[in-house]
Amino acid sequence: MRYSRLFIPTMRETPSGINAISHILMFKAGYVRQLAAGLFIFLPLGWRVLNKINTILKEEMEKIGAQEISMPILHPAEIWQQTGRWYTIKEEMFRLKDRMGRDMCLGMTHEEIMTWIASKEIKSYRQLPQIWYQIQTKLRDEARPRGGVLRTREFIMKDSYSFDAEWDGLTDNYKLHAEAYNRIFNRCGLKYHQVESDPGVMGDLESHEFMAPTPAGEDEIVLCDKCGYTANIEVAKANPPTLLPTNLEYKNIFTPDQKTVKDVSKFIGIDESYFIKTLLVISEKYGPVLIMLRGDQELNEKKLARIIGDFYFATAEEVEQFLNVETGFIGPVDHKIKKLADLSIQKDVAYISGGNKKDYHTQGIIPGVHFDAQWVDMRKVKEKDSCPKCGSSLRIEKAIEIGNIFKLGTKYSEPLKAYFLDKDGKEKPIIMGSYGIGPARVAAAAIEQNNDKDGIIWPKSISPFDIEIIPLNMADKKTVNIAEELYEKINEIYNSFADRHMEVLIDDRDERPGVKFKDADLIGIPIQVIIGEKNLKEDKVEIKKRRTKESKTVTVNKAIIEIVNSYYETY
Question: If residue 39 lies in a helix (H) or strand (E), which one and from where to where?
Fold first, then answer.
């Protein structure tokens, strides 16, 4: 491809209002442009990268027997109503009516539609197992689109779905997808972790996410370097530092205007870890619920929601209504409503908490003696907590979610009546799994992990081109002739390979060398072949690796073999 014919609108200045490195470099290098909040146009270079990623996705899906199909983006409401997600998914779903007044939605995912077609076509165990996949547009009305292509309102996703007659089949397909995803992300040149995750609105059973570590990540993952334990912070388990037993006398203490754990801790001179934070939440399922956390811990709202369903924090008026106490002085003693206590609260320690009376706290509160509760894990894991498996210190990293796998079971097949007849002629629901990868997130994660001050450094498997030829003086006939000769020969090699390895870009623009060098480093193609008059005086050209900046000069007659060797040496 000739640079002069390719639309690559590079920029020198960093656009204002964006912070993620991938967002900045995709803009500056001419890979994307933004149409509106969360809506992006992929320009030629960006689309080439997505196609490279999609090719890898297709190859690996087909290795595990997945069959590609295509589902509509526009969905009738009744299918989503049958599973209940029409009602449980709130503002994120784009909803509309057609000209006949029928409720419709834009697909934010395709479990319902895939299950619907399975319900119509799969009737016997002899037709199972099946794996169907697509690479399709999805739409979600994100409240806060951010991070460039990391969180958008419209995006492309590879989503696959497994259909099995037995639970063992789901386990096998889940493992097949996990192994395929490992191959995909390795081929894309990413550093990543497979972590335990929250199924969320997708499924009720086991799920894992594939997370690419980067400071721009919007998620946090918990890692143990000793035993390999990994989990999204939303579901991670850990053991907080244990406390020494205390001998606090059980009594009320006067704490005028001291409402927070931090304030009371400072006021009476006792560490926050010896406090119990007592909060009132209102659950859609249970009504008012009193929750208790150790004073030095934070609530993990995702964990709590899995226990009591959707909830919100009680207002000051609701605290007065249900507990007859002012906010800031709630304690765990005496209240007759449902109580949940976090496992970090030890039963052999005397604590301090609200005294259920304005300006008073109570010390010497012993769990199990002065109050009873349901003991649950609802705290957020902290850096240096103890690993739940081996006891070693944990660390926390920010990361980008690039893929996920879910065991759906019969969550969708039962309400949509996707049944089959087993060997004994009995009707059973199809057992399902769902597996997704976001190609744009893969591209952004690759940039986040592979860049320097000059621009992008693409892993060669997903680079828009493999080699860039840079003739420095288009007015010099010898420079142009050598550049064209190398361009033609590399194209011949490219066309002769069955797996079509190498694609070449020639910068045939009449631009200054400095402009060409800056653009080449910015767009990040792995191998640069620099042809200048100085080296040509000795019948040589320069081959430079974008990642390491390592360069060497070789004679023109050996240039092709050296270029090919340099390409295969490149990560």
Answer: strand 39-42
pLDDT at 445: 97
pTM of the model: 0.90
Homologous superfamily, domain 251-376:
YbaK/aminoacyl-tRNA synthetase-associated domain (3.90.960.10)
- C-alpha 280/C-alpha 305 separation (Å) is 14
Residue in 331, 356, 355, 328 with CA at minimum distance from that of residue 341: 331
**Segment 303-332 mean pLDDT:** 94
Contact of 6 with 505, CB cutoff 8 Å: yes
CATH code for the structural domain at 3-189+402-447: 3.30.930.10
Helices then strands (H, E): number in the chain?
14, 31
> pLDDT tens across 205-219, in order?
789 999 999 988 889
Decide which of 551 and 496 is more confident: 551
H or E stretch at 327: none
The tokens describing 146, both together, are 């951010």
**Of 31, 85, 64, nearest in space to 439 by CA:** 31
Q: Which of 476, 479, 568, 468 is nearest to 517 (CA)?
A: 468
Token pair in block for residue 363: 């010390």
The average confidence (pLDDT) of the chain is 94
Which DSSP letter does residue 537 get?
A: T
- The 8-class DSSP code of residue 451 comes to E
